[in-house]
């Protein structure tokens, strides 16, 4: 029996202690040099077992804890060389198994996807948003049959959910170091002098952080879907939940439409004045 098959059998056990012991063992294995021998097929088998470990996890707190543990495999255990293969294997299993997820289990898999996305961003951050790694990661999401490919064979609930959580999780990771200051800010009233000073300081620091992060590149899959997706509601979802999000304007990633419209309005009014002056009767 292969290593991956041995893990799968224990990870998919309906006995909780067996699953927990298998997960701890898997963490150690993925952090070791031996894991480099795993093929993408082996990684998919592992995710099949991890999928069922979540399937058998029933209580909300236990589900949240397990989702965090599974998500952290991407940032704490897997190597950079195998990161994109591990991401691909996760989505292969989620896409293939999604039709079997019933209404009683759907929320915990939504939670799992959220935590996986969070730790994907964390892994990219740990590698200083390396251009090649970001590019390869996005290619996994957009490749033929990928979760953000727009393929009509993929359940639309998956890209819809990613639209809902993408910027929330990205914001959480890129401004992780500012969490303490943000919590302090929430204790002040908005008209307090201290609130204004801290708010302005945080805003400047956020802009400095964003300068080193390829956010425009990170949202490119949604630009492609917004343009090319076959389903109109998916195109609209990408626009409403990602591309038109006010945070992108605050971070200077996209231009503020209001300032543009004001400039256009001023130009229009100026041209109207010119037209009126030209039309004005000046006598014989």
From TrEMBL:
<dbReference type="Pfam" id="PF05997">
    <property type="entry name" value="Nop52"/>
</dbReference>
<feature type="region of interest" description="Disordered">
    <location>
        <begin position="249"/>
        <end position="284"/>
    </location>
</feature>
<dbReference type="GO" id="GO:0006364">
    <property type="term" value="P:rRNA processing"/>
</dbReference>
<protein>
    <recommendedName>
        <fullName>Ribosomal RNA-processing protein 1</fullName>
    </recommendedName>
</protein>
<dbReference type="GO" id="GO:0005634">
    <property type="term" value="C:nucleus"/>
</dbReference>
<keyword id="KW-0539">Nucleus</keyword>
<keyword id="KW-0698">rRNA processing</keyword>
<comment type="similarity">
    <text>Belongs to the RRP1 family.</text>
</comment>
<dbReference type="GO" id="GO:0030688">
    <property type="term" value="C:preribosome, small subunit precursor"/>
</dbReference>
<feature type="compositionally biased region" description="Acidic residues">
    <location>
        <begin position="253"/>
        <end position="284"/>
    </location>
</feature>
<dbReference type="InterPro" id="IPR010301">
    <property type="entry name" value="RRP1"/>
</dbReference>
């Amino acid at each position: 029996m292969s290593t991956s098959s041995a893990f799968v059998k224990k990870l998919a056990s309906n006995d909780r202690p067996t699953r927990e012991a298998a997960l701890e063992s898997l963490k150690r294995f993925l952090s070791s040099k031996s894991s480099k021998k795993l093929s993408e097929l082996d990684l998919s088998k592992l995710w099949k077992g991890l999928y069922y470990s979540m399937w058998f996890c029933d209580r909300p707190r236990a589900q949240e804890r397990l989702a965090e543990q599974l998500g952290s495999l991407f940032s704490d255990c897997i190597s950079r060389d195998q990161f994109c293969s591990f991401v691909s294997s996760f989505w292969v299993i989620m896409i293939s198994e999604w039709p079997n997820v019933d209404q009683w289990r759907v929320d915990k898999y939504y939670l799992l996807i959220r935590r996986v996305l969070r730790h994907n961003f964390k892994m990219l951050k740990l590698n200083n948003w390396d251009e090649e790694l970001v590019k390869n990661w996005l290619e996994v999401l957009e490749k033929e049959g990928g979760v953000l490919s727009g393929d009509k064979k993929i359940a639309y609930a998956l890209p819809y959910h990613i639209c809902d959580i993408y910027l929330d999780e990205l914001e959480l990771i890129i401004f992780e170091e500012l969490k303490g200051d943000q919590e302090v800010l929430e204790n002040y009233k908005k008209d307090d002098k201290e609130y204004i000073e801290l708010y302005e300081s945080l805003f400047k620091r956020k802009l400095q952080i964003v300068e080193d992060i390829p956010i425009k590149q990170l949202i490119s899959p949604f630009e492609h879907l917004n343009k090319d997706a076959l389903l109109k509601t998916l195109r609209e979802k990408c626009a409403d939940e990602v591309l038109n999000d006010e945070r992108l304007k605050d971070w200077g990633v996209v231009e503020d439409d209001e300032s543009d419209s004001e400039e256009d309005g001023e130009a229009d009014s100026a041209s109207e004045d010119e037209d009126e002056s030209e039309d004005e009767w000046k006598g014989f």
